[in-house]
Amino acid sequence: MTRFRGYRLHYTDLQAMESMCREADEFPAFFTPPSDDALFIDCGANIGVMMLECKRRWPQAKIVCFEPDPFAFAALQRNVDVNDLPGVRCIEAAVSDREGQATFYGALAATADGRGNSLNAGWAQRPGSTTQTVACRQLSKVIGDRQVDFLKLDIEGSEEAVLGEITDQLPQIQAIYVEVHETPATLAENSVEAITQQLNAAGFTVDAQQRAYEFALPPHLAQWQAAARPTQTQLLCWR
User: Where is each Methyltransferase FkbM domain found (predicted)?
Assistant: First the structure.
């Protein structure tokens, strides 16, 4: 356990936690909600660093967190409970373009660095990775007819499919942060170009920023990174 923004923060892996805390310093810097009780949806919440950052800035915010990794989810729920945070709903599921169950790939253990875990085998099935069956939820059914102030999608290679599933509800969303995960082998199913076209068509201004931090991926993925040539691009999207 450590402290983050005055909150108690439980985590599964020290390096992953430190990386997420560094990223929080500038996220979401491009967006200010219109009211203190804004609705945030955090897809790929991990242990809840972004959730805690939002609660520090906007204590009355309502936040829905999705996290399929059972070990990260346990830490996420604990961080909500030990800090006695109102208005936060945690869902142990992966957002997907379909309901049901699916295979989840990656580093799955109580003390694992789970950055990079994904439903997308092309992104997360690597030497030494394990699998687990997890629940999947369609984001459209959670959004319903509600207005969403901010949507975060950091779901390791499934961004294009999920945005396609909520096409009809994109007009209800005011700002989106998408971290697009690409490799040459997965461009046909998930690409910055296709996602930018989706978001432009829905009326968003999109600013693409290459994510090249030295801590963007765990050290144990260095060999895979050299072979697969992955890229991570941040799309900052607003109206």
Answer: 42-205
Rounded CA-CA distance 35/196 in Å is 27
Distance CA 85, CA 93 (A): 21
List the Cα angle 239/58/238 in 5-degree steps: 10
Contact criterion met (CB below 8 Å) for 11 and 2: yes
Q: For residues 192 and 180, give the distance between their C-alpha atoms in angstroms, rounded to a whole number.
A: 6
Whole-number Å distance between alpha carbons of 67 and 92: 5
2-238 fold: Rossmann fold (3.40.50)
Whole-angstrom distance, CA of residue 142 vs CA of residue 146: 9
CA 203 – CA 93 distance, rounded (Å): 29
Continuous segment of H or E residues that includes residue 23: helix 14-24
Query: Which two three-digit tokens encode residue 94?
Result: 């992966």
> Is residue 175 classed exposed, middle or buried when 0-12, 13-18 and 19+ CB atoms within 10 A define those classes?
buried
Using one digit for the tens of pLDDT, what is the confidence trace for 89-129? 999 999 999 999 999 998 888 888 877 788 888 777 777 78
Q: Based on the number of CB atoms within 10 Å of its own CB, is 219 exposed (0-12), middle (13-18) or buried (19 or more)?
A: exposed
pLDDT, one tens digit per residue, over 30-71 is: 888 989 899 999 999 999 999 999 999 999 999 999 999 999
